Amino acid sequence: MARSSSRYVCQACGYEAPRWMGRCPDCGGWNTLVEEARPRPVRARVPQRRAEAPSADPVPLSAVPLDEEARLVTGVAELDRVLGGGIVPGSLILLAGDPGIGKSTLMTELARYLPDRRVLYVTGEESVRQVRLRARRLGIEGENLLLLAETNLEAILEAARRAKPEVLVIDSIQTVYRPELESAPGSVSQVRESAALLMHYAKTTHVPVFLVGHVTKEGAIAGPRVLEHMVDTVLYFEGDRHHAYRILRAVKNRFGATHEIGVFEMHETGLRAVDNPSELFLSERRYGTSGSTVVCTLEGTRPVLVEIQALVTPTAYGTPQRNATGFDYRRLQMLLAVLEKREGLRLAAHDVFVNVVGGLRLEEPAADLGVLVAVASSFRDIPADTGTVLIGEVGLGGEIRGVGQLDVRLREAARLGFRQALVPAHHLKGLLRPDGLEVVGVRSLHEALDYVL
What we know:
alpha/beta; Rossmann fold; Ribosomal Protein S5, domain 2; 3 domains; 9-stranded mixed β-sheet
């Protein structure tokens, strides 16, 4: 029988199958297999004489030079912090985020951040006129921004070789294609091969390349997972389109620390960096209201104080609701079980809603104590102490466990005018207490609730 000219490729992991299946047997994704044409076999020319591969001798570790490579500093502290101190020449950076979050705005503003560098902005989703209108709204009129509306990757690289930019932006990677591949733009093979060619361009020319990527409805980067492994840095642009706050988070960085965040505020004239996010997240806090606490979380190397709100009401249905915004839902379920088991709060007949103010997502367990105190405060309808910041992880036995870099968190709390801080008791030994801040050690959740409420 003749071999089929098509195949079915999983758009999540790249698994290939000869026929369509509802579920990918490799990654388990549903309805991810898409029919693609098989690549045409290319007959390789057999050389008359076998060429010898160039020899490469291994070198000892001590002989490798350690010259410090100069970075392109944008001057925006929030962006430079996330990138590890600036843009590394020859790096491949992937920027992903929800539609309308501000990815194209941030990439267009690179021309403002780097006025002495030539930036080539390649758009595959907009026309040159549309980008020009956005640049005028942002107040960008410099001659250093070059625009190109093209999706053919061969033509893009040819134009880049002629223009010789110092920064290249591809918006977006799902729209470009290589002509020799018969699959559609955005498919696994097109995204993988296009990223590989752009990586080769970045490494050989030492030009940093930014790739704008789409995200799926689950919040993951669209396309094969190999794309995240190929690039040097993966940035997520987070936030709610209906709010002004935007958070730029690094989840992978070969040239700096991971899980650093940069906070921006969206205005009509573009993005503005927020130098002090703690004051921003606490600016609209109300005092004397039950169900409100303040925790100090560590985002990379930066301490951030954020307000946590909780609302506990009697349920009107047979099954109580558990909703969390900005906090892990499963961890909230576990913490509520600890609160009910160890403190006797009967939450089985109550709906519990937890919200992290400002659109920030808390993944660190140091916020456990603040979440439970906020829930208990709303349940008892007793306002928590507004001048106290809560720091600590809560175990299943109700004990308060330690967290890292406590001195850095306390200095941030003292700088913002907090009077007291509840911390794990075994951290008090040898702890440097900031001036004006009373540090209280607690060993159990019961002690913390008695002290704050």
